[in-house]
Each structure stands twice: as C-alpha cells, then as structure tokens.
Amino acid sequence: MQSSTPLEITHPQGQRGRPREFCPEAALTAALQVFWRRGYEAASLAELTEAMGITKPSLYACFGNKEALFRKALDLYGREKLAYVQTALKAPTAKGVAEAFLRGALAMLSNEHDPRGCLGVISAVACTTYADSLRDEVMALRASSDRAILERFQRAQQEGDLPEGVEAAALASYLSTILQGMSVQARSGASIEELEQLVATTLAIWPGK
Asked: Which of 146, 148, 153, 152 has its CA nearest to residue 167?
C-alpha cells in the first residue's frame, strides 16, 4: 500500500549539498491534519515532521518555526475546510443561510478523512498563555465568520425576512453557538445521526421560513 506522505527526495551522489525536494502543499496538508487532531501545543515537531515526511531543517527552511507552520495550516483550513461559509451566506433567506451553515458543518464533521471537531475550537481550547498570539488568530478566524453571519442576518432583518421581534444579533449568536456545540460534540464522540438530529431540531424551531 502506497503512503500518501509527501516524502523528501534524496538527490543522486555528487549533489548531496542541495536541499531535498518535497511538495510544500502536501506537507502543509499533512501538518494541518496533525494540528487538527492534536491541537497546537500537543502536536510535537517530531510528530509533525514524520507526518509531513520531511526533516526539521526542511520544515524550518520552508515554513519557519512551529508557530509559523500553524499559521499557514490555519490559513489552509480557512480556505479549504470552511469554503462552505461563503456558499451559505449566499442563500436567499436567513433560514436558508442557517441550513447551509449547519449542513456544511455537518459534512465537514462527518468527513471520515478528517479529524472530528473544528480546528478553531480545538486550538482555542488547547492553546495556553504560551500561545496567546495564536489564540488571537484562531479567535479572529471565528470572529470573522460570526461577523459575516451577523451582517447577513441584519440584511435579512432589513428585508423583512425575519419575524418581528427576532433580533439579528441574537439569532447570529445562537447559530454560532450551535455550530461550536456541534464541533465539541463531534470531538467528544457524538455519532453522525446525533449531529443530524441536532441540525434537524435547530431548523425545525428556526424563526421564519
């Protein structure tokens, strides 16, 4: 069985002084999986380099230190794993937005090729004061999503899409809490059926059409 690890390629004799070659994107994807599964602080350099198929000098030369590597992995996570966020915001109704967010999150959490839970939630909880700058970046990623949801629901309120008396800010906070709760439950071992039931219940009591 072939390994998907992005192994470095050793150059022929006479060229030993040249750096080893590897695919940075594949190595970064492997690092993301380690951070996602373990959290920032629990992921050791030995574990990261083994998963990435590279040496520590190659890691430092290509990505910088562990903190810089995590930042790049977090950016990759935002671009690839949270792509459903932008799609959800384009739904024509507030309930449609909520459903697209919940279904998108469910699809990510139930992907058998990825760790369970949300990288942002895992890392925000796992990072201690040693990694305050990283915690801030993780929180900023989540805040960006929360802000986008709020702005979309404010628009829905202006368009009369939300029932009278329903505040956009409260609804946005509610959806964000449900999304984070799904991640925590998935990380704790909740089944896909249980998460699907949570999505169905949330949509059943959602205000408006």
From this structure: 153
CB 150 within 8 A of CB 172: yes
CA separation for the pair 201, 204 (Å, rounded): 5
d(CA 33, CA 24): 14
Contact (Cβ atoms closer than 8 angstroms) between residue 171 and residue 153: yes
> And the tokens for 137?
């970046």
For each successive 10 residues of the chain (209 residues), what is the average pLDDT? 44 45 88 87 91 93 92 88 89 95 89 68 48 76 88 95 93 92 85 93 91
Q: Which two tokens stand for residue 154?
A: 């404010």
The pTM (predicted TM-score) of the whole model is 0.75
What are the structural domains, with CATH classification, of the chain? 1-72 (1.10.10.60), 82-204 (1.10.357.10)
Note the helical H segments in the chain: 24-38, 45-52, 56-63, 66-76, 84-89, 94-109, 119-126, 132-158, 168-187, 192-204
CA 158 to CA 94: how far, in whole Å?
11
